[in-house]
Amino acid sequence: MTQTITGSRRQAALGFIFVTAVMDVLSLGVMIPVLPELVKRFNGGDTAVAADWVVLFATTWGVMQFFCAPILGLMSDRFGRRPVILTSIFGLGVDFLFMAFAPNLWWLFIGRVFNGMTAASFSTAGAYVADVTTPENRAKGFGLMGAAFGVGFTFGPALGGFLWQFDHRLPFLVCAGLALCNWLYGFFVLPESLPPERRVKRFDWKKANPVGSLKLLSSKPNLLGLAGVGFLFQLAHNVLPSVFVLYMGYRYHWSPQLVGLTLMGSGLAGIFMQAVVVGPLVRKVGERGALLIGLFSGFAGFLIYALAPTGWLYLCGLPIFAFSGLIQPGLQGLMTRRVSPQEQGQLQGANSAMMGIASIIGPTLYLAPFAWAVRHDATLHMPGLPVLIAAALMLGATALAFRVANPVTAEPQAA
Length: 415
Prior knowledge:
mainly alpha, Growth Hormone, Chain: A
């Protein structure tokens, strides 16, 4: 499978990478409800201590991604997408085996460090999509990647909770099995998308770091501004895993089952948007139009979530927020058009580094205001304060995108 893609195999390769992304994100989704419970078991059921460890795990993962994603992105430009994707999937499998057999918390910590260092399968898959799609169809390709992300995080947590009731190590063993199947699938089926003549000639350490990534972003017209839009969006989106379960339970007194069904409904709406709506809408309004619609819809959806006094009014925000699924396809389409084929991996590495920063900042940015709002609920009565912060970030991203999200007439060519 060292031969690169040619001609009619491009569409099939897009299907291959979609399946790879689904299995990757599904295994991550399975971990969401069970990792905190495993940490609690190692601490004798102390929820406060478990919360501290979970924050440490998340922060460590984000830090490792911030520093390592640019390296792996440039490696994919130098050696091809396929080996980097396979290395990342293998790292994910090792991480889950660490968690399945870990005798204490420090073994779990080592597994998260290792996974954070190799967490490039999804971002490198983005470079793969840019390789195998034409500029006109690229947003649709990134829409499929968004659908893969939605599938994993819609059904993964439910699967994790189901497996946990049989054995607390079973979810991690299943995740390790999924990662192994994913690796085998990629090893035997997934072809290379970047031919040797389109790769960078040498691996330059000056580019393989966060500072080098910023230089790439600042070297192209409006690319740094678009990266800023992506960062604000990622930071705003971090409110969902940070506080939404606590928020819905506190404000609307919903049971965990109802919260799960609501999140699943939101995920299904996002999958439908990415798989069905993105392609036709981008053809009609363009990548800039799709990005602006998505960002403003995200702002409006968050605003409804934050201010809705009842659960029914909260649910009215779901179909509006679903249009935020247009953000990533429109944004990635605009960004990938601004770099040459041999810089796509470096670009995706830079995007992953920015996402790592958002992952580090996000939990504190939202959990601290939520705790403050709950303590002062008798006088303030604003438990939706962290969601308002996310809405403000989305509005800022919309204003920035309106200024910098200009279409390009031609893509840069490989050097």
